[in-house]
Request: fold
Amino acid sequence: MTPQKMPTILVIFGAMGDLTWRKLSPALYNLLLDNQLPEQFAVIGLDVKEASQDKFHQRLKDGASHFCQCGSVDDEKWKGFTPNVSLISGNFADPALYASLGKQIQAQEKTWECPANQVFYLATPPGIMETIVKGIGAASLAHDKQHIRIVVEKPFGHDLASATTLNGVLTAVFDESQIYRIDHYLGKETVQNILAFRFANALFEPIWDRRYIDHIQITVAEQVGVEHRGAYYEHAGALRDMIQNHLMQILCLIAMEPMVSFEADEIRNKKVDVLRAIRLIPENQVEHFAVRGQYGAGRINRHKVPAYRAEPNVAADSSSETFAAIKLFVDNWRWQDVPFYLRTGKRLAEKVSEVIIQFHPVPHQSFPAAAALAWQPNQLIIHIQPEEGIVLRFQAKHPGPVLQLSPVNMDFSYQDTFRTRSPEAYETLLLDVMAGDATLFMRADQVEGSWAAITPILNAWEKTLPADFPNYPSGTWGPEAAETLIARDGRSWNPSEPTST
Ligand code: BG6
Reply:
C-alpha cells in the first residue's frame, strides 16, 4: 500500500475556522473527487466553538462548494464522506479535550482493526499553537514517529525569537521529521516547476548567474484588501504575512544551487544555504533597501473600495503596512551584487504573481542604432498566477526589407499545453503529508533563516512609525517610493502582462 493510501485520521484544530472552511475543506473534497483519499479516512475536528455534528458537516460542505473549482458539491459523494467526519468542541488548554481526542483515535483504529496515520493539523490562530502542542505532548499523543505528523500553518512566529521558541516547543514533543511547516506557495504547480525548469534542462543553468543575469524581480500582487482578517493583519503586515514566507521561498528556489538528489533534506539544505547568504541590511540603512505602504481608498475593477484604516478591526491610525518592497543581495559566487527586488501588496492594480529574470544587455551592439530602437535585454518571466506559464523574451527581426529589431515572446502556458486542472496547493500539500514527503515543507532552520533576513527591516520599521500612511490609493501599483527604490539603480518594475498573446 502506498503511504498516502494508508488508513488516515486527519485531526484539524480550528475545524470551524476560516482556513478549514476556505482551504482544507475544498482541498479534501477535490481529493475525494479524484479518488486520492485513502479508502479508510476520517476527519476529527476540534474547535472552541460549540456546534452539532450536522452544523460541522454543513460548514465543511459550504466551504467546499464556495471554493472548490468544481462549483458545487455532489450530494451523494458528500454523504459517503461524512460518516467518518466528527467534531469535538472544547477548550484547547483543557487536558480533557486531548483525552477525548485520544479515545476517539483509538476507537477509529479499533473499527479499522489497524494503526492509522494521524495528521494533526494546526489550522488555528498562532497564539494558541504552543498550548495545543503541549496538550498533545502531555496526553502522549505524539510518540509514534512513524505514523504521527503535525502540520503547522503560517504565520510561524511573529519574529525570529518567537519562531525559535515555537520550534523549541514543537521539537520538545515531536521529532523534526514529524513536523510539516506549511507555506502554501510551495504547493503551487508553477512554484514547484521552478526546480524542474532550472534543473531538468541543460539550457538555463549555465547562464543562471551574475555573469548573465542583471537582476531578479519577484512580485506577488493582490487585488483583495485585508478582507475580514484585520485583527490578524494589524499585528502582521505585508512583510511578515507574505515576504518572510512566500516570497523568500520563491527567492530560494530561484537562487539555490543544483541539488544532488530529490531528497527532502537535500533540497532544503540548498535553500537554507541561500538564506544564510542573504546580506543583512544594516538597521540604519533600511530606508535604502525597503519601502512600506498602506492602501487608501480607491477603485478596484471600477468598484469603490475603502482605505485599510476603514476596514473592520483595523485601527483608525494603523501603521501596519499592506505593501512592502525590498532589495536583497545573496552573497555567494553565483549571485554576488545581483539585486533581488521583492514586492507584494494588497489592493494593487492587478492580481499577479511572477518572477522576472532580467538578463544583461548584449556586450556589444552591432546592429545600426535605428534598427535597435525597440531593443530590450532578454527576459525570462515565470508566471505563477493567475496565468501559469513561462515566457522567454528575445529580439527578432521584423519581416521586410528594413532592418528593425523588437522583442518577441516564446510562450509556454500550462493550460494550453497540459489541458488539465492544476491541483490546488492544499491538495498537493495534504497528499504529501499523508505520504510523509516533507520536500515542500519548511524545516526549522529555513523558517529561522528567513526571519533573520528580514529582522533588521522589522526592527527599523517598528522604531519609526510611518508618517505618510495611507500612501497609495487602492488600484495602483503601490507607493511612489517603491518606484524610486528600483529607479535609483537605473531599473524599473516590470509591467505585468498576460502570457497568452
Ligand atoms: C496568505 C496570506 O498566506 O496568502 C494572505 O496570509 C494572502 O494575506 C494569501 O492573501 C495569498 O495566497 P494566494 O494563494 O491567494 O496567492
